Amino acid sequence: MFAMGAAFKFMDMGATAGYIAAAGFPFPLFLAWCAAILETLLVIAFLTGAFFTPAALIAAIYVLFLGFAFHGPSHWAGNQAEFGAFMSHFPFAAGLLFAAAHGPGSVLAFRQGWPGKA
Q1: pTM to 2 decimals?
Q2: Secondary structure class of 105 (helix, strand, coil)
Q3: Could you tell me if 17 and 34 are in contact, meaning their C-beta atoms sit under 8 angstroms apart?
Q4: Above 50 in pLDDT, residue 118?
């Protein structure tokens, strides 16, 4: 999800900035670049296992923030589908917390030394 999000942001940073501005945040272009960079770093952390637990915790906080900021209660009156979008962030965050608690595993995790010889 973060790889797809980052790719969409890099493909049209202006549209992302517009979406951020529509939510009422200042400095939308700066925040769009920050979001794209954060999502790229999260993808790298998840694929390599480097800083996996802190990355998963940061990602969970980020996902909950996105849910409240862009799909929260203030959006429900105008579009009831926003409630579903809001609620979808909680299982995503729960999965990230599960990942933080259990670590990266052994398949894609970065290890010192030669692959398979930890």
Answers
A1: 0.84
A2: coil
A3: no
A4: no
If we measure between CA atoms, which residue out of 48, 46, 39, 31 comes closest to residue 99?
Answer: 46
Contact criterion met (CB below 8 Å) for 69 and 86: no
Report whether 82 contacts 75 (CB < 8 A): yes
| CB of 39 closer than 8 Å to CB of 6 | yes
Structure tokens of 77?
A: 């009156």
- State both tokens at 39: 């999502």
CA-to-CA separations, 1 to 41, 79, 114, in angstroms, rounded? 13, 24, 29
Amino acid at residue number 61: I
pLDDT in tens, 48-105: 888 999 999 999 999 999 999 999 888 888 788 888 889 999 999 999 999 999 888 7
Contacts of residue 29, defined as CB under 8 A and 6 or more positions apart, other chains included, come to: 13, 14, 17
* 54 vs 69: CA distance, rounded Å: 22
Q: Is 60 exposed, middle or buried (0-12, 13-18, 19+ CB in 10 A)?
A: buried
pLDDT above 90 for 107: no
